[in-house]
């Protein structure tokens, strides 16, 4: 196996290689540092690479490996999205409005370290994680390794570009309205938005009024399961998530739907609809019962529930920054909308979540999994939304990604599985939505699809 093959092997396979002595932790880290130095000049996936501290961590990991220590991610590098705290390193949120470096790791980073992971760097984000593209005044644009003229998605765009281009075996993302699933779709990765409260958010608990969660962006389903086993703060399936992913899912009843939630404007592209049709054929061949059935999306869900929570959350995040005057104009525009929503109003909105969840999740009275397109179309071109205001940008980009935010509001798990390339040569996906807290079924079904239609061996032109 050459160095490129090792870079694209994925976290779980690298963990096995480290245990077997096929490679050392310092050598694995240096492999990535070399690739980042050569490739990231074109992509700008990383906001900062933590070279010195990562080297110290890799040496320490190797000493533990040599002493017979065994941890799930011991010596495996991981990239961290730049809205999550890493001790003594700025958390910039894609902005120049940030304050002093945190004095401790976020809890999810602490758990990854306890599992043995080496923190490689912090990945680029759009300002305040607001957009499904990753371009900022402060740090520039992050490019999609499948097409440098296009965005990798967002807000975990740097994480997506890094893993897709072989600049990290795994990355931490966050997802408040699709921010793991969207860049995973357009970068050709497996991305999982876990059940709310599955993966710790501290010290940024209740981000975006409860919409946002942390989760993995990976090359394989096993890698994502490994991440969950290392970070879950509530009991998972018997035997853990890696074991659940490897089990056959049995015969499932699966609903397919390409219906947009009411008030969402847009149209599913031909390639994305073809992917959904192809999923129907494959799932039937795998022995599942497949039906076409639309969820009961309430008409008030988007404008009466999702957007108020998002806008209020953006206002709260902006208010917490010490240099708010440095925010981009369209970020300030969204924050102003959030300021108009009072605490009493947001309390009423959040009190309606059980009714919203009951309506949307009523489809699971009849099926085990819901499948939708991952996105309606492909990504925007770099610079496409320059000089647009906040509301105008949101209106334009939402037509590309109408299928994601609803499941942040309900809190249930959702994953995207790579499904070929569109007519422009950019990856697509299908989105799998599960019952509350049932990541195990999503992982098992995703792994079955992965075995039938492998994707991890695909590498983008810029890698």
TrEMBL record:
Pfam families: Amidase. This is amidase. The lineage of its organism: Bacteria, Bacillati, Actinomycetota, Actinomycetes, Mycobacteriales. The gene is amiB2. Residues 28-443 form the Amidase domain. It catalyses: a monocarboxylic acid amide + H2O = a monocarboxylate + NH4(+). It is an enzyme of class 3 (hydrolase). Belongs to the amidase family. Transmembrane segments: none annotated. Its EC number is 3.5.1.4. InterPro entries: Amidase (IPR000120), Amidase_CS (IPR020556), Amidase_dom (IPR023631), AS_sf (IPR036928). Signal peptide: none annotated. GO terms for molecular function: amidase activity.
